[in-house]
Each structure stands twice: as C-alpha cells, then as structure tokens.
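Notes from the pairing session

We agreed to fold both candidates in a single pass and log them together. This is the raw record for the first candidate, unedited. Please don't reformat it; downstream parsing expects exactly this layout.

Candidate A
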Amino acid sequence: MGTASSDSAHEQHSDNASAASMATATAAPPRQSAKHRKSRKPRRSTKPEKYARGTRSYTMSHIRGKDTSIEVLVRSYLFRRGLRFRKNDKRYPGHPDVVLPKYHTIVFVNGCFWHMHEGCTKHSMPKSNVEFWTAKLLRNRARDAAQHAELEAAGWHVIVVWECELAKATREERLGKLYAQIVGGGAN
C-alpha cells in the first residue's frame, strides 16, 4: 500500500511539474534590465532636430493637398480680376488647381518642395531618410511632366505657378503676368 500511495503522490508531483514547465515555456521571456539590454542608437543627422519627438508626424499629417494658402491667393486674385473657373476638377489629369474652360487654360500652383522646383531656395532634399524622399519627389516630378504632356496633347494651355514666385516682393508682378498669360492666350 505504501507503494501505491507513493506512486500516486509521485504522479501528482510529476503532473504539477509538467504543468509548471508548460506554463514557463509559453510565458514571455523575462525582461532584461536596462543595463543588460542591447541599445540601438537611432540614426541621427548632424543637423539639430527642428521638431520635438512626435511633432514631425503630427505636422506632416496636416499638410493639405488642396486649398493651400498659395492656391487660395491665386484663385482670389483671378476671381477679383473677373475670371471664372473650376477648382480641383477631377475630370482632368492631376486635378488641376484652376481650370478656365473659356480660355482653354489650366493652372497648377506648385509648392517648391513637393514638386522639386529647380534652382529654388525653398526646395532642398531632406537630410534624413534620403532614399525615400529622393524616390518620392522624383516620382512627383515625373508624374507632373506626364500630366502636363497629356493635357497639352488634349489642347489645353498649361501654366505652372511656383510657390517662390508668390513671395511678397514679386507677388503682384507674377499674378499680373499670370492674368496676361491666361487672357493673352499663352505667351510665357
């Protein structure tokens, strides 16, 4: 009898031991202390960070694709001069910022950074994540060229107004030139 009870006690103990070993096998490994963790150093540029941590994502999420301040500026000028137009018309490639059917003219108001304005001080390649930004901005430029060619092939006169041309010092001159380009029929 002594052996029967010791056998059942042994089985019970081995069942408890196997349950405990299974619990530790499925549990997450214990966390290492900060002292023993491998530290990964984030890539940092030599330039000091302009934004606090997390602010860049918030800022980038609020960049608008339409009704930007420079687009509103151009549209309000054209409206004051008596021109009537459609805005962000999805029927045309690139959803042009201003479509003037009467003059068969389309106006794109481009930001210098996003559309890679050559020789402009407002366009500079970001120092972080260079491969991503280079590919993205080059795709933007190629897409713009294809859309402009498609519109011109369809008989539209395409005008591009750059953000840097709308600086306060040159704004009135550029807007006057834009009006003349539209009404005059295309002399750049």
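Candidate B (folded immediately after A)
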Amino acid sequence: MPPPPPPQANGGKVTPNLAMDAEATRMLNLTVLQRLDPAVEDILITAAHVTLYDFNIDLNQWSRKDVEGSLFVVKRNSQPRFQFIVMNRRNTGKHIAICTDFLACCFGR
C-alpha cells in the first residue's frame, strides 16, 4: 500500500483544509444537538459565543443571566419548527428559546 500523499505546502507551511474542518465541526455540532433533541434536523445559523441578558423595564436596565456559550438556530422535524439553543458553559443546563415568531424572539413582543 503506498504512503498517503504529503500535505499541501505553501512556502514550507502546511495548508489546512478549512472546508473539511468546517464541515466536520458542523456535523459534530449537529450530532451533539440531536442527542439533546432528536427532532433537530439541521443547523441554520451559529455563533461561537453569546451571553443572554434580561431587560428590567421598571429599572430601565439590563441584567446578565447565567447563560453563555455557543448559539445554534436549528430547524426541527416537529413543532416548534425552529429554536434557538445556547449550549450553556456557565452551568450544565442548556438554554432553549422557541422561535415561532422571529420578531417576538428578538424583541420580546
């Protein structure tokens, strides 16, 4: 059996296959999300790091919640069809926001 081909070099530096790494990361994330919720069928949007805040109308101020981590907007094969999921790094619980109305999710209406 012949040895594997050498990595592509660019001026003596190894050029990583970023497209393959991105797809591998996406598939790993999808697998983890499907363990938490088997109805998840696709990841639509991701953000590496988010922090959730509450707005107190009476005090007119923001307060930080105990939720921060990677954000995933997912498509599901059952109702609700779309969700925001934050893989919470601050504690073991995940945070899920059901998104039936995009404006309601974003602006609390």
